[in-house]
Amino acid sequence: ETGLGTIGGRKLQLLNPRLELNGTPVPELFVNLLTEGVNRRLDLQVLEASGITARLLQVEVNPEQMEMAAFVRLAPPSR
Asked: What's the pLDDT tens digit per position in 39-62?
């Protein structure tokens, strides 16, 4: 099933995405390459250098909405 998951509370991950272009399914190889690139960019740890600590406690996605419970802490960046 297609969806959105979390890894360790700090990284979002696309789960089994399906892509179509003009009604035609995109080849799995291309979808996997695109998914890997997107998943690398969804790591919340990259914000920590800016003094932002964020953790995802829960993520639920359905066709109508996305619900998320998170912890966010803002602090001056350490020098």
From this structure: 888 888 888 888 999 998 988 888
Question: What pLDDT, in 10s, does the model give residues 59-76?
Answer: 888 878 888 899 999 998
Measured CA to CA, the distance from residue 20 to residue 12 in angstroms comes to 22
Q: Which amino acid is at 22?
A: N
The domain of 21 spans: 3-74
CA distance 45 to 52: 9
Number of structural domains (the chain) is 1
Q: How many DSSP H helices and E strands does the chain contain? A: 1, 6
β-pairing, 11-15 vs 20-21, is unpaired
Instruction: State pTM to two decimals.
Output: 0.61
DSSP track, 55-76: EEEEEEE-SS-EEEEEEEEE-P
